[in-house]
Amino acid sequence: MPSESALRIVWIYPDLLSTYGDQGNVLVLEQRARRRGASVETVHVRSSDPVPDSGDIYLIGGGEDRPQILAAERLRRDGGLHRAVARGAALFAVCAGYQIMGTTFGGEEGQPVEGVGLLDIASGRGTHRAVGELVAEVDPALGAVPTLTGFENHMGVTRLGQGVRPLSRTVVGTGNGDGTEGCYAGKIVGTYLHGPALARNPALADLLLFWATGTPPTPIDDTWYERLRQERLAAVLPSA
Ligand code: GLN
């Protein structure tokens, strides 16, 4: 039984969606919460199991087209994630996981597939595969989140509707395909960034912890994260 005071993290469908180290997002979130003295309980929910609606932070990763379609169908049918978001849980969705949060996304042949409808976005198939390092500047309305660094590998392009705001503006890379990368609405963040995203951008992990707990996370020693960030940024921005 989960204890009342623990931070509850839910990792959705690792059997279908978890490419390019996305599971590292769960580890980073757990570690950053524990380093602040919180107790953490993580549930890995396979696609054959119901998604509990009692979590505080939900994470979902990227994947190939076929498992992405399956994941969207199962999440729609299950309803647990919808109930969790309705009660104010935070959600971090990466690449395929990001696309399926929208109204539609492109299937294996580019055919429109129904998403789960938690974000006002629509994705389709682009003209080429976007592969490589991505750098982007975060919407200042989210507070002091430094330049995003990550890795992208997707065919999809994403159009943002009125109900969401761009997470960031791309400096290097493709992201949504229109000069923006990812989006946010309420306590949901979607992004194309792998890497894993929260290891390369721990400030995003802290944003999720803040949303989940209502308390600004205390500063911690981020020397190693910072070294990784600088190495990655220098690899694509010669002046960094
Ligand atoms: N299948 C999706 C696309 O190519 C998502 C890929 C991914 O998650 N890396 O757009």
Please render the helix and strand layout as text.
Layout: E1 7-12, H1 24-35, E2 40-45, E3 57-60, H2 65-78, H3 80-86, E4 90-94, H4 96-100, E5 104-106, E6 112-114, E7 121-138, E8 148-160, E9 165-172, E10 180-185, E11 188-191, H5 197-200, H6 202-213, H7 223-236
Parallel strand pairs: 1-2, 1-3, 3-4, 4-11
Antiparallel strand pairs: 5-6, 7-8, 7-9, 9-10, 10-11
Helix pairs in contact: 1-6
Bound molecules: glutamine.
What would your notes on this structure say?
With 240 residues, the chain is an alpha/beta fold. It has a single domain (7-236), classed as Rossmann fold (3-Layer(aba) Sandwich), CATH 3.40.50.880. The chain is 28% helix and 32% strand. The chain is built from 7 helices and 11 strands. A 9-stranded mixed beta sheet has the order 2-1-3-4-11-10-9-7-8, sandwiched between helices. It has a two-stranded antiparallel sheet with strand order 5-6. Strand 10 (180-185) and strand 11 form a beta hairpin. Helix 1 (24-35) crosses helix 6. The termini are far apart. The structure holds glutamine (GLN). Pfam families: GATase_3 (PF07685). Substrate binds at residue 129. Belongs to the CobB/CobQ family. GatD subfamily. This is Lipid II isoglutaminyl synthase (glutamine-hydrolyzing) subunit GatD.
